[in-house]
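Tokens in:
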């Protein structure tokens, strides 16, 4: 039987000999191959930590549905997003707009402080009024991804548009390219920031902060690859649209009963 020998020195300076048989080597080698092929870390391969419950990106394709009729403009989603993602004051990853539409006239649109504190009571009566939450549309064919010169903006395999701040140059090309106005340059980090669909939460089985804190359920995180997700029935039974469909970005935020005045 083949036996390999290696000499090691302990912290006390004592010299010891450690022997490994051919059988031991095969056991260790087999373990390394099996665990490494599954993407395990070195600590897990060596038995220092148990393998975590794996999140498989290929099993998901994330998006959001928004029911305009349910939104009350309370701003809970904006506050929750700001707190969860440490959004700097005066900037927004999500915001809410109020549309006041009078027949024959251009709609009046306001969003005081992104609706962080809700909306003041309207002074005009007898006109159509509704609220529209907005955020990154996590487009499958994103203009922002196409113009980034270093690949800092990318679409993840599970359909979320993300920004790698370690590569971002702060050139603002993506900010100009986004047709939805959902990106900004972080005033302290000097890199681009935007809605990440709370990626740190959804990969752990949680919903987004904005959806979790919406008191009326106007916004819902959805997984288009999950056949049991209610989104499929929602899309079949309701009139849904995306913002600026003529841009052909394959946006994945769907609005129910979106008024034609929304831009």
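Residues out:
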């Amino acid at each position: 039987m083949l036996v390999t020998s290696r000499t090691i020195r302990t912290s006390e300076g004592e010299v010891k000999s450690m022997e490994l048989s051919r059988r031991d080597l095969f056991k260790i080698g087999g373990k390394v191959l099996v665990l490494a092929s599954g993407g395990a870390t070195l600590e897990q391969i060596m038995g220092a930590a148990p393998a975590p419950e794996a999140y498989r990106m290929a099993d998901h394709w994330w998006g959001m549905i928004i029911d305009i009729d349910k939104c009350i403009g309370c701003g809970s989603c904006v506050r929750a997003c700001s707190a969860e993602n440490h959004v700097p004051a005066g900037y927004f990853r999500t915001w809410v707009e109020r549309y006041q539409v009078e027949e024959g006239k251009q709609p009046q649109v306001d969003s005081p402080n992104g609706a962080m504190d809700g909306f003041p009571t309207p002074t005009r009566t007898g006109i159509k009024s509704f609220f529209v939450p907005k955020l990154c549309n996590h487009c499958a064919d994103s203009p922002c991804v196409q113009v980034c010169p270093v690949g800092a903006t990318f679409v993840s395999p599970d359909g979320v548009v993300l920004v790698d701040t370690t590569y971002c140059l702060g050139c603002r090309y993506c900010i100009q390219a986004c047709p939805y106005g959902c990106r900004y340059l972080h005033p302290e980090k000097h890199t681009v920031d935007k809605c990440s669909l709370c990626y740190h939460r959804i990969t752990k089985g949680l919903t987004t902060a904005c959806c979790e804190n919406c008191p009326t359920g106007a916004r819902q995180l959805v997984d288009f690859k999950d056949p049991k997700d209610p989104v499929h029935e929602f899309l079949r039974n309701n009139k849904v649209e995306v913002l600026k469909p003529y841009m052909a970005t394959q946006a994945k935020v769907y609005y129910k009963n979106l008024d034609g005045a929304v831009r």
